[in-house]
Every structure is written in structure tokens, then in C-alpha cells.
Design brief:
The protein is built from 26 helices and 36 strands. It is α+β, with helices and mostly antiparallel strands. It binds one RNA strand through helix 7, helix 10, strand 18, strand 19 and helix 16.
RNA sequence: GCCCGCGUGGUGGAAUGGUAGACACAGGGGACUUAAAAUCCCUAGGCCUUGUGCCGUGCCGGUUCGAGUCCGGCCGCGGGUACCA
């Protein structure tokens, strides 16, 4: 008998699958289709263990579905545009294209040995002109349908490098290269009208039964539908041509507690004042400092500037409120102006305290008084006592009061109730090179003119350099100067490229016909769509998935997807990250130095470098190149084989949770696979009958239970639970006294149950035991209920909820008998200590609880 | 700041509101071996008065015959926060 030798068998079976062309997907209306997709990777240069986990989960689903008779589509591609390629070009020279395609080559070379059941013939990268040309065609169709427009929006501006920065490139409000204080600057940009679909995107979440509830909640909160009051304050003396300030509030019930009006630094009135008043201009400049992220704006110090302008309260014209310009008010949301009620909003409270503004409560708790030193902000559903309401019950919840306030205001001619969404339109313009060019030209006489479809793709030029900041397209001598598609006169090509989220918003549809000369092909999307199971990281819960949902609708409007694909992902699973400890020491300046895991010796939970220096261990950190804690799966595969890597990433941790990579875990996984192989080899050579009465039946009963539990585990993404069951069943088989025939049957089923996770080992075991054909093509086994019946059951007995004993009774014993048997147990009597049971709860087949 | 998660032995984790710690790692003990590796078997939450005893699922409180699980409030960690992908 030889030994388990993954290097040999993995190559052998991968060749067998290839030769049989098993994973090439072809339309076949006679069979049910199944489309399983993992979020495609960014070609960073090397796969990491998180990729292995993600793709292995998808592969388990794909292989399982194949074994239940489905025609499976399981494709792979690369999300290949984006900043890292440009950063590499800036740092090391070269072209982003070369860097990207080299990385893709490397990563495909690293992925192939994993034995994933992928249809590699469908592979593409989003930076292929054949892909982004079709994306440009989609853009033109969207433009035609009025789904795209231009408007001004703020970006991070680096005043030293004279360039736009990504949020990631802003560190503590400064540009990452120049170190200059970043400012928010307006630029004309392209937008998709996603906000027109806000209500539909919200409503349709209800139909996504196989999406995680948390993702739907996050999307619903992001879309942020709110009912509120829009009204205006009259300006005293109609300063600067503005006689009214329009505000939007979701808490009109607190209007009688208003103490100031705040406007955004980008509000038209603020801009008007800025032009005439250097002091206001200086304030606005300061207020615009820092990055554009919501986080930066919300956590920045709250700054206000009293404009001196006063407005009148709508219900008391003698009551005047000051108008402040405030850095925390966004022009993008509502009207860019608010009123502040410090008594019932913590942010307003802090602002009012800082600028010495009155704090006027409109309601109090039903018992006690408002808290000192902070705003009183109860849940909207909680009832409170109103002291400055206008006309509803003295005791009412915030929610009821909001509705009553809107009705009252409308009846009195103060504004109207409106529904607003937090969701903003999707800005797709990027002032960068490495993205899909936006296919329009700017003509002096015709304005913005779409490129003709026959001229697509508008391809990125190769002769560019990255030796200065900014977009090389802006300074390209010939690429930019074109003739107008409409009038033939001189024109300039648009140099903005598309957000990479556009690339990933339709790749799943393109996989159904990756080489077509239209974005999609009707027969292919009709057959293959929707994605039956989509798998990816929780970090994409909002943006990528929401944009894809929008894109699917937009593509449907343009005839590129059927109506059923408006929601393109039938089921979604979000998996956790793979983490690894960080090993760090400090350099002379106190800055952290990160060490590779292979350079650290672990002893008793402490880590030491070769020279004996102790390192600080930061547990469970997200793997990151810059922290040197990335585990390279290629080394693991080389050492133990792909099946070990696959088995390990699935075992131990529930798929939706983060998993800590440990070298010991991989070693253990390998030992187990070697053991399965050895047991199978023994079974293959065994002969004879059972040595113990009933051993065959017992083994087969356990086998059917394993089929049931593993099938359930695979179907419900309980891969770790399925693997625990497989460990247990392996132990059962190993110790079984059953005869050769029963053992052989059990071992073959074990191989089948393992085949989605460790397909090479499974093939080898299958062949060793004389299985017919490839296990990859074998039908999934079915659990036989009749084989699993047990005739007695063990029930724990509790007294007042504490376990005091157990009884084993026939399965169908009636409750009164069970109760009697339970009370007869010695230890139960001792626990009762003479007391009379008040009640005995018998949960059939589960538990008995005696209540005293 | 705001939204969404997560928190169970030395470690990863299991547990439709029903025996907390399945399965595995590391540890301890043993078998086999000249020895080692490999393999196999046993053991294993904490505490003590060793009783089928007490405590125990981040902390505090609640609902329930019964809570790791449901509810409320804290603490800690992670993801997202619209130009990282």
C-alpha cells in the first residue's frame, strides 16, 4: 500500500476533468441550470488565503449542484481597473496594462492548482477592450434613456499636487503624497440617476428572501427613506436677495424648540455672503478643509459662523432665530439648510452650548425631568409628555407627534410633508487613467456629443507616462483631440474614466455570453440568469450590490436583461475574512515594524525573532500586505496539496465569520485527509463478514445520518458543521466491526460526501474502491429515512431548570408515562426533597422539566 | 459621529428557546518501536468539601417552567460610511 500523495493525484484528476471537459458550461434547455458566482478578484498580484476560502465555498456549491443534476455555470474573471495599477506605474514605471495582465497571469497560475470547477473558457478582465467597449455601449444606451447626466459635485482636492484624491489617499485631512491640507472642491461630473429608483430599490428588498437580513437592513438604511416637513423661514430684512431659507426636517414636532438655523458652506446664501464678506470667505474656506467622506465631516469639530442674518419663526413672527453657516451641514442632503433643536438632538446641543444658544425642550419624559448636560433623545416609538407641541395629545410618541406636526403645519400653510431619500445619485466620473473611458466628446458648437457606437471601444492609449500627478489623458497630444461625431469640427474627448464599480455592476451578465458583440445575448441571459448563488465579502453589502441592482434595472430598460433579472442575485451569501496575527516591534522612533510569520518563533503564546527579540502579537487582524501578515496559499498547496487548503479553509469556522489562519490547523487538516485515504485503502483490500452482530446495520445507519447532515450542511452554508460530521463519520467507519461490503459502501459514500470539498482525494478513493466513472459525475447519495429510525430516546430531566438526571424511554411512550418515569428517578426525588411538583413540562423527544 | 455585525474552555468553534462545550487544534497520559517519525487508544471548562456538588457563554438588568439563543442598557472588537476594491 502506498501513501496519500496529493502532488500526484491532484495533477492526475485535474487532467481527467480537463480531458472530459466537465466544467465547460453550455446552454441546455433540457436540464435545470444553476449559476454560482463568487465576487471576482482584483488582480493585486498574488492570491491570498481569503480568495481560496471564497472560491472554495463557491466550488462546493458548484460541485454539489452538478451532482444533483444541474447544468452549472461557474465562471471567473478579474476586476482589473483601479488605482493600484496606476500607483505601481508611478512607483516603478511601466504601463498599468502590463502590470495588470502580468498579475492576472500569475494569479490564474496560482488558482488553477486549487482544482476549482471553473469554466475558464469564459474568463475575461474588465480592462479588456472587448469588455469595456460593451460597457461604453451600455453607457450610451443609458444616456439615451436619460439615466445619465452631468452636475457639480465635491471632490478631495490636493492644492499642491493639483490633483483629485481618492478618499483612501486622504490621511487625517492631508494628501498622502504632498502632505497638503486637502480641500473640498466642486467639479462637473457624470452621474447615474440611481436616486430615481430609490423607492423601488427599497421596496424590492422585501422580495430578496435568500439574502442575509443584515445586508437588506444596511441597504434600507443607506437608501434612507424619510418622511418630513419642508418649509421656509422668512428672512428679516430680506438680506442679500434671499427672502426665504428653505429647510427640511424629519422632526417638525420639535419646531417650537428651534434655536438657530444652519446652512451649508455650499448653500447659495453662504456663497453669496462669501463673495462680499472676507470674514465669511475665510470661514467657508476653513469649513471646506478636510476630506469629503461622511466620516470626516461628521467627526470633525463642529464649526459655526453667525452671519448676523435673522429669520422669523413660522408660528411666532416676533421670535427671531440666528442663521449660522455650519461645516457639518451637507448641501447634498435635503435643502442644505436645517433648524437646530438643541434640547432633542445631541449634535445641535453641542453646537448650542458652544455658541451660547438657547436650549428649549418641547417634551419631557413621562416620569422625571430632561437629563442635564445632554440632549433628551428618546426612541421615536416612546411616549413622552409634550410641553411645546402644537395641538396633539399631551402624551404621545415622537412618531405620532411628527405626523400630527406635519398635518398641522400643512393646515396652517407652513410648508408641506415630503418624502426624501438619503441615497444620492451615483457619481461615476474619475479623473484617472486606468478605467473605462467615458465615450463622449466635447464640441464647441454641439456641446456634449455621444461617441458613435461603431467607434467603440474608445480605447485607452498605450503611449502614456506617469511621472507627474494627474490623469495622463488630460495631457495626451493626440488621443484627446478628435473630430466631433456630430458636426465633424474639432472637439475634445472626455478624459474622465468610469468608477470601477461600473465594471463590477454587470460582469455577472457578461459571463453568460462573454464574447458577444453586444453587451448581452437574449438567449443566454434568458437561460443563465439569474445568479442562483452569489458569494462574496460583507464589505460589499451596500455599494457593489446596490449599484448592481440599479444596473440590472437600467439594463432591463435598455433591453439588455429580461424583467426577471431586475434583481440579478437570487441568493446571496457573505463570507467572513481570513485574519492572521500581526507581529510587530518598534523602531528607534517608536514607529511599528512588521515581521513575517515565518520569521517569528512561537513559544507559550509569546513570539521571538531569530535574534531573541520579543515581538508584540496583535491577534486576528485583517490580512494586509503592509502589515506583513498575509498568508500565501501557494506555499500551503505546495506543502500539503490543494485539498488540504480547501478542507482547512472550510473547517472550524462558520463561513460567514472571520477565520484566523494558523499553521497548526493546516497540518491537522492534512493528517485527516491522509487518514481517510489510508482507511479507504484498507477497506479496498478488506474481505469478510461483520465480526459483531448488528455492526453492518449500525454502520449503515450512521452513514445515512451522515448523508442527511452533510447534505443539510452543504445546502445551508454550514460547511464547518458538515466537516465536523465527516470527522465523526470517519471515526465511526474506522472503528466499525462491519463486514467488507458494508464498509466499502460506507467508504464510497464518505468519498462522495467529501467530494465537493476535497475533489481530488474523493476521485482517488472512488477509483480505489472500484467506483464507476468519475465521482465528479456521480449522483449525490440520498439519505434513507427508514434506515435512521431509532426506537428509544434519552431525555434529560430538569428540576426548576437544572439538570438532575436522565431517562431512556421508548420513542413513542406517552407523556403521562414519561412523567411518571422521570419523577421516579432517584436523583430527581433527592432534588425535590419532598416538595410536590407544581407542574411537569414534557417536551416530546426533548426534555422533561419538573417545576416546584 | 452614524448604520450593520460579532463576543462561548488554553485555541478554532458546536448547540430549531430544551443535557453548554459536538468536532478539531494545542496539552497530559499510555500502546507500538532498539529509538524516532508515523499511527492507534485514553484524558481534558473552572472550583472545592470529589458531591452524579457549586460556578460558568463580554458586563448589568428583564421575559420564560427553561436563555449562549429573545428584549433593554453598557463595554470591547470588526465591516461600511458614497473616489480602496
Amino acid at each position: 500500500m502506498t501513501r496519500y500523495d496529493p502532488a500526484t493525484i491532484e495533477a492526475k484528476w485535474q487532467k481527467a476533468w480537463d480531458d472530459a471537459g466537465l466544467f465547460r458550461a453550455e446552454r441546455d434547455p433540457s436540464r435545470p441550470k444553476y449559476y454560482v458566482l463568487e465576487m471576482f478578484p482584483y488582480p493585486s498580484g498574488r492570491i491570498h488565503i481569503g480568495h481560496v476560502r471564497n472560491y472554495t465555498m463557491g466550488d462546493v456549491v458548484a460541485r454539489y449542484k452538478r451532482s444533483t443534476g444541474h447544468n452549472v455555470l461557474h465562471p471567473m474573471g478579474f476586476d482589473a481597473f483601479g488605482m493600484p495599477a496606476e500607483n505601481a506605474a508611478m512607483a516603478n514605471g511601466g504601463h498599468p496594462k502590463d502590470w495588470t495582465y502580468q498579475n492576472i497571469d500569475t494569479m490564474v497560475g496560482q488558482m488553477k492548482p486549487l482544482g476549482l470547477s471553473l469554466d475558464w473558457s469564459r474568463m475575461f478582465a474588465t480592462c479588456d477592450p472587448e469588455y469595456y467597449g460593451q460597457q461604453q455601449a451600455l453607457f450610451l444606451d443609458f444616456l439615451d434613456k436619460g439615466l445619465v447626466y452631468r452636475k457639480n459635485a465635491v471632490v478631495n482636492w490636493d492644492p499642491v499636487d493639483m490633483t483629485v484624491l481618492a478618499n483612501e489617499q486622504v490621511e487625517n485631512g492631508r494628501g498622502w503624497r504632498s502632505g497638503a491640507v486637502v480641500e473640498r472642491r466642486e467639479l462637473t461630473q457624470w452621474f447615474f440617476r440611481i436616486s430615481d429608483m430609490a423607492d423601488e430599490l427599497l421596496e424590492a428588498l422585501d422580495g430578496l428572501d435568500d439574502w442575509p437580513a443584515k445586508v437588506k437592513t444596511m441597504q434600507a438604511n443607506w437608501i434612507g427613506k424619510s418622511r418630513g416637513l419642508q418649509f421656509s423661514f422668512g428672512v428679516v430684512d430680506a438680506a442679500h436677495g434671499h427672502d426665504r431659507i428653505e429647510v427640511y426636517t424629519t422632526r417638525p414636532d420639535t419646531l417650537m424648540g428651534a434655536s438657530f438655523v444652519g446652512i451649508s458652506p455650499d448653500h447659495p446664501l453662504a456663497k453669496e455672503l462669501e463673495r462680499h464678506d472676507p470674514e465669511v470667505a475665510a470661514f467657508c474656506e476653513k469649513a471646506r478643509q478636510g476630506g469629503t467622506t461622511e466620516e470626516a465631516i461628521e467627526t470633525a469639530e463642529k464649526l459655526g459662523y453667525d452671519t448676523g442674518i435673522r429669520v422669523r419663526h413660522p408660528f411666532d413672527t416676533s421670535w427671531e432665530l440666528p442663521v449660522y453657516i455650519a461645516n457639518f451641514i451637507l448641501m447634498d442632503y435635503g435643502t442644505g439648510a436645517i433648524f437646530g433643536c438643541p434640547a432633542h438632538d445631541q449634535r445641535d446641543f453641542e453646537f448650542a452650548t458652544k455658541y451660547d444658544l438657547p436650549i428649549i425642550p418641547t417634551f419631557e419624559p413621562l416620569e422625571g425631568a430632561c437629563p442635564e448636560g445632554e440632549a433628551f433623545v428618546p426612541m421615536k416609538s416612546e411616549k413622552v409628555r409634550w410641553i411645546r407641541g402644537f395641538g396633539w395629545d399631551e402624551e404621545a410618541s415622537g412618531q405620532d407627534a411628527v405626523n400630527a406636526a406635519i398635518a398641522f403645519c400643512e393646515a396652517n400653510g407652513v410648508g408641506q410633508g415630503v418624502t426624501k431619500f438619503r441615497l444620492r445619485d451615483w457619481g461615476l466620473s474619475r479623473q484617472r487613467f486606468w478605467g473605462a473611458p467615458i465615450p463622449v466628446v466635447h464640441c464647441d458648437s454641439c456641446g456634449v456629443v455621444p461617441e458613435k457606437k461603431e467607434n467603440l471601444p474608445v480605447e485607452l492609449p498605450y503611449d502614456v507616462s506617469f511621472d507627474q500627478p494627474g490623469n495622463p489623458l488630460d495631457r495626451h497630444p493626440t488621443w484627446r483631440n478628435v473630430s466631433c461625431p456630430a458636426c465633424g469640427g474639432p472637439a475634445l474627448r472626455e478624459t474622465d474614466t468610469m468608477d470601477t464599480f461600473v465594471d463590477s455592476s454587470w460582469y455577472f451578465a457578461r459571463f453568460t455570453a462573454p464574447e458577444a458583440d453586444t453587451p448581452t445575448v437574449a438567449e443566454d441571459v434568458d437561460y443563465w440568469m439569474n445568479v442562483d448563488q452569489y458569494i462574496g465579502g460583507i464589505e460589499h453589502a451596500i455599494l457593489h450590490l446596490l449599484y448592481s441592482r440599479f444596473f440590472a434595472r437600467a439594463m432591463h430598460l435598455c433591453g439588455h436583461l429580461p424583467a426577471k433579472s431586475k434583481e440579478p442575485f437570487d441568493a446571496l451569501f457573505t463570507q467572513g475574512m481570513v485574519t492572521h496575527a500581526i507581529f510587530q516591534t518598534k523602531d528607534a522612533n517608536g514607529r511599528p515594524v512588521y515581521h513575517y510569520p515565518e520569521d517569528v518563533d512561537l513559544r507559550d503564546g509569546r513570539g521571538f525573532l531569530k535574534d531573541g527579540t520579543e515581538v508584540e502579537i496583535v491577534p486576528s487582524a485583517k490580512m494586509s500586505k503592509s502589515k506583513n501578515n498575509v498568508v500565501d496559499p501557494v506555499a500551503i498547496i505546495g506543502q500539503y496539496g490543494a485539498d488540504t487548503a480547501r478542507w482547512f479553509v472550510l473547517s472550524d469556522s462558520p463561513p460567514e465569520r472571520d477565520v484566523e489562519w494558523t499553521a497548526a490547523g493546516a497540518e491537522a487538516a492534512h493528517k485527516h485527509l491522509a487518514r481517510v485515504w489510508r482507511i479507504a485503502a484498507e477497506v479496498a483490500e478488506a474481505s469478510g463478514e461483520a465480526t459483531v452482530q448488528g455492526a453492518d446495520e449500525q454502520l449503515l445507519r450512521e452513514m445515512h445520518k451522515a448523508i442527511r447532515d452533510v447534505t443539510l450542511g452543504v445546502e445551508s452554508f454550514g460547511f464547518n458543521a458538515a466537516i465536523a460530521k465527516l470527522y465523526a463519520f470517519t471515526n465511526t467507519l474506522s472503528k466499525s466491526q462491519a463486514g467488507a461490503r458494508a464498509k466499502r459502501e460506507a467508504a464510497m459514500v464518505l468519498a462522495q460526501l467529501m467530494s465537493p470539498m476535497t475533489p481530488h482525494l474523493a476521485e482517488d478513493v472512488w477509483a480505489m474502491l472500484g467506483g464507476e466513472g468519475l465521482i465528479t459525475e456521480a449522483r449525490w447519495p440520498e439519505a434513507d429515512e427508514a434506515m435512521m429510525v431509532e426506537d428509544s430516546v434519552t431525555l434529560p430531566i430538569q428540576v426548576n431548570g437544572k439538570r438532575r438526571g436522565e431517562i431512556t424511554v421508548p420513542k413513542d411512550m406517552d407523556q403521562a408515562e414519561v412523567e411518571k418515569a422521570a419523577l421516579a428517578v432517584d436523583n430527581v426525588q433527592r432534588a425535590l426533597d419532598g416538595a410536590q411538583p407544581r407542574k411537569v413540562i414534557v417536551v416530546p423527544g426533548r426534555i422533561v422539566n419538573v417545576v416546584v
